[in-house]
Amino acid sequence: MKRFLYGVLLLLLLASSGDAQVKKAGGLPPLIDRDLIFGNPEIAAAQLSPDGQYITFLRPWKDTRNVYVKKVNEPFSAARLMTAEAKRPVAGYFWSRDSKFILFAKDHDGDENFNVYSVDPAAQPAAGADAPEARDLTGLKGVRVMLYETPKSDPDILYIGINDRDKAWHDLYKVKISTGEKTLIRKNTDRITGWSFDLKGQLRLATRSADNGDTEILRVDADKMTPIYTCSVLETCGTLHFHTDNSRVYIESNKGADLDSLMLLDPQTGKTEMVESDPLGKVDLGGALFSQANDELIETWYIAARVKTYFKDKAYGADYRWLEKQFPGEEISVVSSTRDEQKWLVTAAADTEPGKTVLFDRKTKTITPQYKVREKIPRESLAEMKAVSFKSSDGLEIPAYLTLPRGTPAKNLPAIVLPHGGPWSRDMWGYNSLVQFYANRGYAVLQPNFRASTGYGRKFLDAGNQEWGRKMQDDLTWGVKYMFAEGIADPKRVGIMGGSYGGYATLAGVAFTPDLYAAAVDVVGPSNLITLLDSIPPYWESIRKLFAVRMGDSNTAEGKARLMEESPLNAAGHIKTPLLVAQGANDPRVNRREAEQIVIALRDRGFPVEYILAPDEGHGFARPINNLALFMATEKFLADHLGGRYQEGGTGEEVARLKELTVDPSTVTLAKKVEAGTVGAPKPATDLKAGTFHYKMTIEAGGQTMNLKVSTAIADGGPSWTATNEIETPQGNVTEKLTLEKTTLLLRSRNVVQGPMTIDVNFADDKASGKMSMNGQDRPISADVGGPIFGDGADQTLACLPLAEGYTTTFRNFDLQAQKVRLMQLTVGAIEKVTVPAGTFDAYRVDVTSADGGSDTKTVWVAKDSLKVVKVSAVAASMGGAKITEELTE
Known about the structure:
Blueprint: H1 34-38, E1 44-48, E2 54-61, E3 64-71, E4 80-81, E5 92-95, E6 102-106, E7 115-119, E8 135-136, E9 146-149, E10 157-166, E11 169-176, E12 182-186, E13 192-197, E14 203-209, E15 215-220, E16 225-231, E17 237-242, E18 249-253, E19 261-265, E20 272-276, E21 285-290, E22 297-303, E23 307-311, H2 314-326, E24 331-337, E25 343-350, E26 353-361, E27 366-372, E28 385-391, E29 397-403, E30 413-417, H3 433-440, E31 444-448, H4 458-462, H5 471-485, E32 489-499, H6 501-512, E33 519-523, H7 529-534, H8 544-550, H9 557-565, E34 579-584, H10 592-604, E35 609-614, H11 624-642, H12 652-661, E36 662-663, E37 691-701, E38 704-716, E39 720-728, E40 734-741, E41 747-754, E42 757-764, E43 767-774, E44 777-784, E45 808-815, E46 820-836, E47 839-850, E48 857-863, E49 869-876, E50 882-888
Parallel strand pairs: 30-31, 30-32, 32-33, 33-34, 34-35
Antiparallel strand pairs: 1-2, 2-3, 3-4, 5-6, 6-7, 7-8, 9-10, 10-11, 11-12, 13-14, 14-15, 15-16, 17-18, 18-19, 19-20, 21-22, 22-23, 24-25, 25-26, 26-27, 28-29, 29-31, 35-36, 37-38, 37-50, 38-39, 39-40, 40-41, 41-42, 42-43, 43-44, 45-46, 46-47, 47-48, 48-49, 49-50
Helix pairs in contact: 11-12
């Protein structure tokens, strides 16, 4: 498929190699070893260096995909190892524009905090090393790096975003690849989601997510940013590439229209002009390609059942069409090219062809074969994928892909429905590992592009608004009915399997249509939409409003009720389908609780459920051994319940790993969440006293340590106390003022000033009200807190409680960023001896943890005699696991 990653989450899952045993073979082709389909490919993801001298590619090293490099004319056997990742495959890589560096990304055990590394392709490994040393260009942990631009004007530069200051928003940095030197260009205090640079590498535009969810394109001037184009929360608009005049910019937009189109925008006037929409008037713009040599528009493409390309560069188009004739029936993808675009690295692929990669010389019309993707897979045993459609419950036409097993009549077959993830994405025609795997096992496989799938226009996308578990689920149900009506599927042998949203659809399928499916496999799917929305990663803040509009707003009574009704967890009592649940313990999108809630709900009913938990994975499995174990389990599980073929067993390592990942449901426990309505406020044993306390603060994050000075001043304000926290930072002081009611120490107001940001919030009548101001823009704060707020922002209030070993209490805090109540559990431990700069103290150990599923923790040591807070140690999960320590200095 042209310039696209295949959209199904589970394509990267790998499976085991074992002795193939045919079960109920019929006229099917021989069973393909699952390792050939899902195991590490011999060679994959090749790229041609911009200077045309090298080819890089991925190949297993210690059973993990790593980057290799070879000269163009060398055999692949002569390639040198460039990365030595022994645990997780390299997530992605690319060349610097001058061919001096290979850059790659990696995270930590699936936490999606990707950092960027560079390695010199000409470098040699140090003595005893397997690969040359790679430079970490960011050197931060718990931070997700975004790549914005690789300017032609300076090939040694990357423009990246780093969210170390604010997890929700990325500041703009310039990074020098050769040295790793980072320079802050712009601090992101304006909800910026992207930056656009012109053809000379100058910052010209920014994209902002407004508080109401609208997208704004801003012109960036020296002293200000000016909105020039806006589309609503339910519309799409974004910049693509500057025109060759370096004045106008190409954008894609469906503002005021159904289909996404290619347009030109003048940043000075805000005027737009249409360039092109789908000539057939059916689907959205699929994409546009611009020349790296002269920045001209080369082609546009659109994807209905198959991709259709329109060439603007006649010579480029003629060469592309010539290649199509050399590989009839296959789709051509120019995966990379030289800087002058005279040599292409091309892959030809199809539904029954995983891919053939060749080097194409445009001048000589010469094709030089390089390798075949998964060369050992018998192509003659693969099954054809066909585009089909069917009507849903309300008559909406649903496009889909149907793959039928080869060599057997398409009648009364076991079948599997594979809903894609997203849900705002789509499936496409082409080679699909998961589809071919199950088709070879004898299943009919249906991939519905249900409403809310992208690419088919706004009306189709918006038809899925607030329809999770409802009409979106109907689309899958009517897909099954379509297979029944066609005589394809056996009504007693239909399964459903999916990842992410596809996992949700799997759970919804067995919860809301319990008689439809005979087996189900949920991979990292949410079971409770309320807890899903409460736990989305902070770097998704820009689309939080979009979630509220498209799914339902959990902050309103109506929205919350709808989301609860659409949550499979709340209908778990209806489930009677055998279910296998697979989860990554470090998943930042759909956290572990989502899986374990549904496992516990079924277990407590006495209903059998299987559970696989990978401690070193995130949103989907990436480690080969984990994938091999997962597919060994799912293949046998589906065969047991649907009657398809399966491959017996696996290698000793795979069998052992599956045993390690398999969790006995009887051992699964959830931290019991406290009901907010039962929480009041603890009664202090003493009142505050006026005084000032000075602390040394240390913040450890991403391998870096920051030392700061902190003071807390408590003053008598008549009927209330005023507590003022002040932090001295290199960027200026941060000041927080709290008003606390005397005797009860309940929080009545809070004021925070940090540079251009101010927060003012009052607490009264169980409500929080106020505003957050940033550079003259106000964001209202309004929330029902459901009860009193205690101990929030002033640790000295905790010292006023009746401290004694074993004492425990629960109280409310208020998260200013999320505007949500957080319930905290306090427990007093034994007295410990604590040494800080101010001296050595016998101190109560006071542990404060979340009572509602959060991950932040804090320990406060309170001097037994003076009741001073002498030390605080906190781990902030919301700050990427940063460790914060405060020690009393005087």
